[in-house]
Amino acid sequence: MKTTTSRISIPTILNVGRGNLADVGAAVRKSGFSNAVLCFGSGMVQLFGESITDSLQKANINILRLFEQDNNQIEYLAGFAYGIPAHTQVIIGVGGGRVLDMAKYISFVNNLPFISIPTSVSNDGFSSSGCSLLVGGRRRSVPAKMPYGIIVDINVIKNSPEGLIYSGIGDLVSKITAVYDWEYEEQNNKGMVNDFAVMIAKKSVNSVVRMDIQLNIRDEFFLNELVDSLIMSGIAMEIAGNSAPASGSEHLISHGLDSLLEKPYLHGIQVGVATYLMSKVQDHRAARVTKFLVETGFFRYVKSLQIQAADFEKAIDIAPTIKPDRYTYIHQEDSRAFAKRLLKEDPILADTLI
Ligand SMILES: [Zn+2]
């Protein structure tokens, strides 16, 4: 029995705003760091290198090393992590999910604080303790630790490719089905929810899906809410001590696709489609999920990717085997049969997938 209150790690630096890449140095200095290693994703030095290195130099932060790469194979990173200079005090990652996961992992291995500076928000990884790495060539979730700092420049996110924004939208909306799966697990005496994590996860998604979204996805207010909510989703996982508040049957379907496809689609794209499907299977807030995904243009975008319904069908069968210890809707045979039927019969899915 657990009788103590929960203790969690939360980021010390949290700065979401416009034009704040110029403030990175001041934020790092305020925390007392003077020796940093910078990891940029491919192409990111050209875009953001100057503003970030200028800001660090102005704040008298020594840049011990500056890397630009996107190799997220765990076998490679384990060796790479040991090459970090001994007097490094902080590791700063700048770019998309891949480089942030890489920098998060090498910080974890070196027991150093990590500052996460996402240049796109395609999932909640920039604010969570886990990372997604290639293990034996396949995308897998690997434990690491919560970033020490999160700095998000909304101007930068606003200019990121629409597919990445849609992926963030898909990953966020999944809290609706994930939390419902978690509660279902508890109702069936197969697990226990953490009420605080449930509250945070619900609040995070509701603040976005309840917005009046007759707007474009590059609206700054919308993006600010999306970013804040993805951060809260990362915190909900930290409170729970596992990914359950942010990852249910819809994520298992996405993991099924990851294990199946040579080139999987963006995480949040797969998850968003699976959330729509599972909200219908669960018969839970399906109208809200539908309205949100239709009005943001999510399905219109997904249609352009020409994703095969047959792949989803296979992924549905694989899904329960990904986490056999969990007990979500997708672990039920009749739910899987219903989900597969929806792939063919649901008008939105029939129109979106090929
Ligand atoms: Zn996710």
Structure, described:
- This protein is of the alpha/beta class.
- The chain has 2 domains: 13-158, Rossmann fold; 162-352, Dehydroquinate synthase-like, alpha domain (Up-down Bundle).
- It is built from 16 helices and 8 strands.
- The strands form 2 sheets. It has a 6-stranded parallel sheet with strand order 1-8-5-4-2-3, with helices on both faces. A two-stranded antiparallel sheet has the order 6-7.
- α6 (162-173) packs across α9 (220-240), α8 packs antiparallel against α9 (220-240) and α10 crosses α14 (309-322).
- The radius of gyration is 20 Å and the shape is globular.
- The chain starts with 12 loop residues before the first strand and ends with a helix.
- Zinc ion binds at residues 123-124, 171, 247, 251, 267, 271.
Number of strands: 8
| Attached small molecules | zinc ion
Radius of gyration: 20 Å
Question: What structural class do helix, strand and pairing data support?
Answer: alpha/beta
- Terminal residue distance: 49 Å
The second-level CATH architecture of the largest domain is: Up-down Bundle
The percent range for strand residues is 5-15%
Helix-strand topology string: EHEHEHEHEEEEHHHHHHHHHHHH
Q: Give the proportion of residues in helices.
A: 40-55%
CATH topology of the largest domain: Dehydroquinate synthase-like, alpha domain
Contiguous helical run count: 16
Total domains? 2
What's the assembly state of these chains? Answer: single chain
Shape: globular
